Amino acid sequence: MTVTLPDAGSAAFQTLDAAALLAALPDPVAHLTAGGQVTLNRAAQARMAQTGSGDWTALFQPGSVPTIQDAVQAALRGETRQVTVQVVDTVAPGLLTVASASGGALLHLHVARDPLEVALELMDGLGLGMTVQAPDTRILLVNDAATRILGLTREQLTGRDSMDPEWRAIHPDGTDFPGETHPSMQALRTLQVQREVPMGVYHPQEQDWRWLQVTAIPRRAPGATQAKQVTTVFADITEKQAMQTEMRRRERRYRSLVRATSQIVWDAFPDGDFQPPQADWEAFTGQSPAQYRGVGWLDALHPDDRAHTIADWQRAVRDGDLYSTEHRLRRADGQYVPMQVRAVPVTDERGQLVEWVGTHSDLSAIREAEQALRALNAELEGRVQQRTEDLARVTRFSTLLLTAAGEGIFGLDARGITTFANPAAARMLGYSIERMIGQPQHDLVHHHHEDGAPYPLADCPIHQTLLDGQTRRVERDVMWHAQGHAVPVAYVVTPTHDEQGQTSGAVVMVQDITERIRAQGQLQDLIEDLERSNQDLEQFAYVASHDLQEPLRTIGSYTELLARRYQGQLDPRADQYLHFMQDAVDRMRSLIQDLLGFARLSRADLTLTPTPLGDLMRSVQQNVQGTLDADGSSLTWDTPDQVMGQASLLTQLLTNLVSNGLKFHRPGETAHVQVTSRREGDMIHVQVRDNGIGIPPEYHARIFEIFQRLHRRETYAGNGMGLAICRKITEHHGGRIWLDSSPDQGSTFHLTLPAVPS
């Protein structure tokens, strides 16, 4: 078919119904007669209704009215003019065409939507504050999200500049953030984008500090040497900042835990090189930094263990995965010690490997070390995951935001129809972007629950946000892949609003949590296995110890009868044998009693009450009074604090520590034990110091294990259970115990117990 394009003056146009054409136009049109009579089409009438005025000039800013009146007069004289006007409630200027028509003037208004309005609306929908500032940093425009984040009204913000002394801003370290160094000022001065600058601002409504991440983008005309505006976008990261602070605190805590429960803690570069300083390694192996630098640490390994150790280490470095192996490590005295070796890769917020953190643990203490390392590994993985999520939430301006984001992003209109989707969303759910746009989002990807049951639209959090305009966060749900399988997801639904403040749609940010769920399941299985193993061991120790008492009581009774009846009637060697038997029975009875006490302690329910340490020490003194009187030893204390605990167990704990100090004194010297306490935050730090024989550093962890003795029984009596019971009581109270000691320098036992709340 051939199409003929006539000009406006042709007969075809002259036969058209002009009134119908003008009424159908979407742009406002008005007809003014020479006598001042005005006729408006539907679009103009709609705009007039918004102004609430009967005067058609109320559609325009006052400064544009004289220009329009001149154009009308020219049209009445037969001229046609086009003038630029400023329309009320519209940022972008309008183009007004005024032409002569039917003895009057015909006015046609065309208003384009300003891209800046679109940007402000998009930032509102994403929960990001946005301001536009003049070259002197006066704020020209501001969106609703900025008023909420800053706690100021639009009127309070408009016209304000970065040098206003009423701004209260600080750096992350708490120092002042002067106005001349604000990101907007820097962007104007350097004409460079200032990206993701952290800033703390005071929120006057909540009377608290908010943490922002600020990006300032200068705008200048082509060829200009100075910026004409600066656009500043900022996100409220207060919650993220608090979580990062907590992560750093927990990292320090777990590093301390690892150091307290392991013999050696070390770190290595991302490529696997072992570099100084490594204080723990030097103290244990006796190697100098020059000897262990790079891969020199292999010389401290048993020759038969080097090959598999190298293979495991190279694999971990290559894959950036958990390193775990066992080998024998040469101690400074030349003895090889079997070691369990673990290391975890530590990554930054971009997921880049920055270092390895590892431990060497004596296999006799592997149970406690594995638990500590598992907690540290989980904490590090949580930090990496959290930082990855935080980075994924950092939005980019306009189209860059949608195409570069790692999470899936959907845009929905008020009916739930998908209006946009980024590539990540398409990849996650197996659809093309074109296939998703224009489809009801719920019917396409959110139609069923994880168990296959239908998902009613009324129950869908996304649909509920479209109805009530409330932001929602869902930590666990599923969306359905194009191939028919469920994809586990977490998502955030943020409403968008139109010019009247009504909910016009929503933005949905979706994250695939398949790997997170798998990791959580594996971790839960490990925890359950460990708890089950500990319960079995405690039950075995209790039952075995209890059942051993009856045969031992029989042996002891008959041994005593033999000694009483036949003492002196047999040869001296038989009397000596009977003495050995009685001594063995006594030792066995003591061991069983200690083991029973240890097992009962594991199953006991604690009743924590405020307990003065001074009262406990007076009970301890009564318990050891016989020793003090026998050899002239002394016990002093300065313990003004109160702790939350069970008095009977704490008395046993302190009695064991004081008795050790009195027992292990240097030959020829009188023992002296001093006990002190001081408050440290929510805990009470207790120190038990003696002037005894001391303990070499390599045995500091070992002495807290059951049945661990460092001296012959003939030299110092005991069963090797006392310090194990001390550690169990301390940990049951939520504290920890450790040792500072050197040979011939005495020992100081440290323990922490919960303080009575202020």
From TrEMBL:
<dbReference type="Pfam" id="PF02518">
    <property type="entry name" value="HATPase_c"/>
</dbReference>
<dbReference type="InterPro" id="IPR036097">
    <property type="entry name" value="HisK_dim/P_sf"/>
</dbReference>
<keyword id="KW-0808">Transferase</keyword>
<keyword id="KW-0418">Kinase</keyword>
<dbReference type="Pfam" id="PF08447">
    <property type="entry name" value="PAS_3"/>
</dbReference>
<feature type="domain" description="PAC">
    <location>
        <begin position="472"/>
        <end position="525"/>
    </location>
</feature>
<dbReference type="InterPro" id="IPR005467">
    <property type="entry name" value="His_kinase_dom"/>
</dbReference>
<feature type="domain" description="PAC">
    <location>
        <begin position="323"/>
        <end position="375"/>
    </location>
</feature>
<dbReference type="Pfam" id="PF00512">
    <property type="entry name" value="HisKA"/>
</dbReference>
<dbReference type="InterPro" id="IPR035965">
    <property type="entry name" value="PAS-like_dom_sf"/>
</dbReference>
<feature type="domain" description="Histidine kinase">
    <location>
        <begin position="543"/>
        <end position="757"/>
    </location>
</feature>
<feature type="domain" description="PAS">
    <location>
        <begin position="121"/>
        <end position="173"/>
    </location>
</feature>
<dbReference type="InterPro" id="IPR013655">
    <property type="entry name" value="PAS_fold_3"/>
</dbReference>
<dbReference type="InterPro" id="IPR000700">
    <property type="entry name" value="PAS-assoc_C"/>
</dbReference>
<feature type="domain" description="PAS">
    <location>
        <begin position="401"/>
        <end position="446"/>
    </location>
</feature>
<dbReference type="InterPro" id="IPR036890">
    <property type="entry name" value="HATPase_C_sf"/>
</dbReference>
<protein>
    <recommendedName>
        <fullName>histidine kinase</fullName>
        <ecNumber>2.7.13.3</ecNumber>
    </recommendedName>
</protein>
<dbReference type="InterPro" id="IPR013767">
    <property type="entry name" value="PAS_fold"/>
</dbReference>
<dbReference type="GO" id="GO:0006355">
    <property type="term" value="P:regulation of DNA-templated transcription"/>
</dbReference>
<dbReference type="Pfam" id="PF08448">
    <property type="entry name" value="PAS_4"/>
</dbReference>
<dbReference type="InterPro" id="IPR003661">
    <property type="entry name" value="HisK_dim/P_dom"/>
</dbReference>
<dbReference type="Pfam" id="PF00989">
    <property type="entry name" value="PAS"/>
</dbReference>
<dbReference type="InterPro" id="IPR001610">
    <property type="entry name" value="PAC"/>
</dbReference>
<dbReference type="InterPro" id="IPR004358">
    <property type="entry name" value="Sig_transdc_His_kin-like_C"/>
</dbReference>
<dbReference type="InterPro" id="IPR000014">
    <property type="entry name" value="PAS"/>
</dbReference>
<dbReference type="InterPro" id="IPR013656">
    <property type="entry name" value="PAS_4"/>
</dbReference>
<dbReference type="InterPro" id="IPR003594">
    <property type="entry name" value="HATPase_dom"/>
</dbReference>
<keyword id="KW-0597">Phosphoprotein</keyword>
<dbReference type="InterPro" id="IPR052162">
    <property type="entry name" value="Sensor_kinase/Photoreceptor"/>
</dbReference>
<dbReference type="GO" id="GO:0000155">
    <property type="term" value="F:phosphorelay sensor kinase activity"/>
</dbReference>
